[in-house]
């Protein structure tokens, strides 16, 4: 089975730092597109693995949605999957 994220059709908004091309900066911070582990973690990591229904990267400022893995996988694989979505994000300016 390929490594992938669960994708549901909906618009998600997240305040992130942009790179020189206008895409989110890939980094494990609250303002970057990345997975935080340890203090302020996004997802529960057990023995180097993450899985569905254990948390995920939160793209919703209200905490009502998150990007979770579709199956158990190593944390580094999940982080790479999140980073690989960088070009799917676009800038929306507040009016």
Describe the structure.
11% of the residues lie in helices and 4% in strands. It is largely without helices or strands and 95 residues long. It has a two-stranded antiparallel ribbon. The model has no long low-confidence stretch (mean pLDDT 82).
Distance between the termini: 42 Å
**Biggest sheet features:** 2 strands, antiparallel
According to DSSP, the number of beta strands is 2
> What ranges have pLDDT less than 50 throughout 5 or more consecutive residues?
none
The secondary structure category is: little secondary structure
Percentage of residues in helical conformation: 10-25%
- Major beta sheet, strand line-up: 1-2
Q: Strand-residue fraction?
A: under 5%
Topology:
Layout: E1 49-50, E2 73-74, H1 75-84
Antiparallel strand pairs: 1-2
Name the features.
95 residues; little secondary structure; two-stranded antiparallel sheet; 1 helix; 2 strands; globular
In a nutshell, what does this entry contain?
With 95 residues, the protein is mostly loops. It contains one helix and two strands, in the order E-E-H.
């Amino acid at each position: 089975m390929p490594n992938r994220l669960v994708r549901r059709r909906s618009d998600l908004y997240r305040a992130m730092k942009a790179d020189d091309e206008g895409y989110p900066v890939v980094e494990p911070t609250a303002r970057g597109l990345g997975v935080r582990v340890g203090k302020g973690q996004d997802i529960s990591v057990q023995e180097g693995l993450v899985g569905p229904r254990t948390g995920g990267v939160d793209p919703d400022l209200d905490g009502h949605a998150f990007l979770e893995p579709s199956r158990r996988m190593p944390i580094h694989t999940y982080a790479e999957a999140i980073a690989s979505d960088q070009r799917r994000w676009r800038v929306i300016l507040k009016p």
